[in-house]
């Protein structure tokens, strides 16, 4: 089955910890994205990558980091510098501008 | 700042009626337009894409694009309770990279 997977589905973080969210796709898409969604709000772009070994900051990149070492993988690290990380995190990949989303990771700071 | 505007709703329609969802965008140099459906607690699912002026039909869904007026709409015919969800409009702005801007979504409630 082709698609996008994200893990874990739920993640709990203590204050001061870094955590890494996984995103993998087997759709052979070049471009991948990370969004954050807060309750009742739209999607805000954190980082995006159009090609392996290259990525760009989105609108809210502060406190986050990414890597793109393989076409299939685009992990997101939420660092301790992100002051309000509790949110629903969505990974997407795209072909011909249409974006396809993974199931999401719900991060909660304890 | 390129923007995509949607009425947050909720838009309530009776079962079997036509639901009409609207979206306006700010940049005339937009090329691609998308509608996503997002159920509560789930990720967005692409349901329609439209690239040229006019109507595009897919089953009970019709997307309408009017570039001169800078709006795109989604019609859902014979609305069902299972259509109750938040519908996100997304616009791809030309600029040499694959990046889209999402609206905040319209919540649709189909009343049985």
Question: What does this molecule look like?
Answer:
The complex is a heterodimer of chains A (110) and B (112). With 110 residues, chain A is an all-beta fold. Chain A contains no helices and eleven strands. Chain B has 112 residues and is mostly beta strands. Chain B is 0% helix and 56% strand. The interface between A and B is medium-sized, with 21 and 20 residues.
- Mean pLDDT score of chain A: 93
Number of discrete helical segments of chain B:
0
Count of DSSP E strands of chain B? 11
Form type of chain A: globular
Q: Which structural category do the helix and sheet elements of chain B fall into?
A: mainly beta
Written as H for each helix and E for each strand, in order along the chain, the element string of chain B is EEEEEEEEEEE
Q: What is the CA-CA span between the terminal residues of chain B?
A: 40 Å
Oligomer: heterodimer
Order of helices and strands of chain A: EEEEEEEEEEE
What percent strand of chain A?
over 45%
In this structure, how is the largest beta sheet of chain A organized? 7 strands, mixed
Could you tell me which chain pair has the largest interface and how many residues each side has?
A: A-B, 21 and 20 residues
Give the uncertain stretches of chain A in residue-range form. Answer: none
Quickly give the structural class of chain A.
Answer: mainly beta
Radius of gyration of chain A: 13 Å
Task: State the end-to-end distance of chain A.
Answer: 35 Å
Strand fraction of chain B equals: over 45%
Please outline the major beta sheet of chain B. Answer: 6 strands, mixed
The helical percent of chain B reads under 10%
What value does the average pLDDT of chain B take?
A: 92
Shape of chain B: globular
